[in-house]
Structure formats: structure tokens, C-alpha cells
Amino acid sequence: MNLRKLLEQREADNNPLRIGIIGAGKFGTMFLSQVSRTPGMHLLGIADLNPAKVRKSLRHIGWATSQYNAKTLATAHKKGSTAIIDDSAKLIAADEIDIIIDATGSPQAGIEHVLKCCQHGKDIVMVNVEADALAGPLLAQRARDAGIVYSMAYGDQPAMICELIDWARTAGFEVISAGKGTKYLPAFHQSTPDTVWNHYGLTKTEAKKGGMNPQMFNSFLDGTKSALEMAVVANAAGLSAPEDGLAFPACGVDDLPNILRPKENGGILSSRGQVEVVSSIERDQRPVFRDLRWGVYVTFAADSDYVRRCFQEYGLKTDDSGNYAAMYKPYHLIGLELGISVASVGLRREPVGQTNLWQADVVATAKQNLNKGTVLDGEGGYSVYGKLLPANRSLKIQALPLGLAHGVKLKKSIKAEEVISWDDVAFDRNDQAVLIRREMEKQFKPKRKKP
To answer: Which CATH class is domain 3-155+336-348?
Structure first.
């Protein structure tokens, strides 16, 4: 509980954490609204392909023009202001910056940014779960080898789930399941940027006025973002993925211990220690009572008469056996909380979560029948959605990672709900993201379980 005190000391010493952010979309803008109110932090630079849009966002959140009128990063450093540039490589290479935040959402760009941070000795906070799900274990290792910190982004659900997992394990509990809530129906897997706003109760005009990106918002709806986030959690915490994708059971907070427990005990899990996402609506579209749509959870086991009795004495909501309980956080504040990651990395040299294993993968799955010659359009698009699978199964069927299913052409026709393989597409074997992914597969290949 001393991050704030440490930041205040850095402010008093005129030695703030010097930060650069790449990408100023919704997540990045939310962080920008808070960083100017936080002592001990100086946002020196914002790199974005659309500087004019960044300036508009800064005005929208109340920044004065004097706060972001620096022409160069060096000037920003001297004047205590912020420079807006369109070159992420220049931002990473700047001597004035200590910590980089990647908020781009592009797996290819994320991989490039991590490698450049390794080259220039800059710590990196990865809002970019797309890159982390694609090759996170290798990127984290490259960062350790370079002596920099590679961290998840607090405020985003994966880091907050990892926080609950760490709490449970540090208290001596075995984690049975961990995950988050969302709004889900099976039909959402077929949603496209043309149909997404109906599910959100908006018109295209209303969404456009709000500056909302239909493909990005569709990735939340069609299950892709949930799969990406659960892959990152599984790979950080050593949890397993469901054998054939997330089940998205309809479940409120009071039912977490009953539903998120092993099958042999009456739940839905194939094993202890598994990621899962719960839906805030029933399959008939009725709202779930006390849903967890915006939150995160962990279920854990007592596994002793004494602890089961303690659960009862202290009012924990348990399953019907009294052995399984849950802890949850009902909300997450996205970029408004990102500063906690920056402070942890810059002051304690600690990530708030980090992928270390390859337990789970997100594979490209056809939303509809796709013809030979179709060019895949990636996350949240018209052609594919991301499905969570165990990494060993993904490797066995040579599944195409969702993060590489953009701009590649099908060499054969694919049926709806079919997982697309590497052999089904024409791809550039020398592409940096492809090379990093292939290296990650070899180096972090899951070990076979003994029979």
C-alpha cells in the first residue's frame, strides 16, 4: 500500500517516472485522463498514427493546450509537458523515456515494440493482449534477458484476475477456476462489424458519433477478446484451458462456487485449475441475477474440515458441500487504473502479471463458410473469431493463431466453425511476427502429460 507514497517522493525529488504511450484509443485516453493527476509520473510522449485525433482526445478529457504543445521529446522533458508524434520507434529510442505502454491492440506492432524495448532498455506495459496471447512467453523471456520489465496492464481484466489468483495462492488456497464475466450468447460468434451495434442497443450513427470502432467492439462481442484474455491468464498463472473452447456458462456471483468447480463435484470444470468466462445473460436472454458482466473472479478450495468451518463462520458463500468458495471484484476501470502497472514496474521493478508458460492458445475459427481466396480480416472482423484451446491441442492440429489471421488468403474453402490451420493459408514465412511465433512454439512446446 505504499505506491502513492513512493510516487509522492519521486515528485518531491523532481525525479518522476518518464513514460511514453503508443496508441491513444479508448484505453490509452482513459490513462491520459489520470496520469496528469498522478504525482511522480511524467508522460513525455504519445505516439499515434493520427496525431490530430490525439489532440482532439486530450481536449475532450480537459488537457490545456500548454500541456501537449512540446515539439520534441527533449523539449517535453525540459518543460514538463508532452510531445505528440507519429513514430513509435522514435518514442522507444528516446533517452528521456523509461517506460513504454503499448496500447495498440495490434499483435504485429506489439511484438515489434517489445523487441525494440529490449534493444533500447525500456520497460514495457502491455495493454496489447493480442501480442501477449500470440507470443507472450517468448516476449517475456526476451525482456528478462534484456534486463527490462515486461508487464500486463492493471485495469485490464487479465492482470486483475492474476491479482486474485496470487491472493488465493499466497493465502494457501488451491485455485480451482479463474476468469471474468461478459455478455454472451452462442450466436454472438457469428457477429460482424455490420451487426454488432444491434447487440449493444445502438445505431450505426450513434456509434459513429461516439467514435466507437465497430471491429474492435465486435471482438468483445464475438468471444475473441474473452479467448485472448483467458489465454493470457492461463499462460501467466499455469492454469489449463477447456478442451474445446470456453463454455460461457450463465452464472451470477452467488453461483460461482457451485458452477466453477470440478464435474465430479457437480460443476462444469474438467479439471481443477481452469480458466472460464461466465455470461451475464441466460441462453434465453433473461438477465442473470447478480451478474459479473464487468468483473473478475477466482474460485478456491478449503480441502480441510477446519477451513470449511472457517468459511461458514465468516459468512463465505460456498457450494453445497461447503468446500468451494469464490472471491470476486465486480468492476474493472480499464485505462483509469493503468497507472498502477506503471508504478509497480517503475518503482518496484515488478510486473502486475506476466506470461511465462504456453498453456493456452487462441485459434482462428471460421464465422461462416469461407471460399478459397478469401482474405481473412482478423480480430472482430467478418471472417473469423478466436477460440480458446489448450496449447498442445492447437499445436497438434497446426491451428492458425488468431493474431496472424489478418491479411492472409485462404488456399482452400473452409466450413463455418472449422478451425483454420497454417496449411490453409498463404503466409509470409519471413514475417517478424511469424518468426517469433514459430520460435515460441518450439521453445515453449507443452510437455506431454504422462498416461
So the answer is: alpha beta
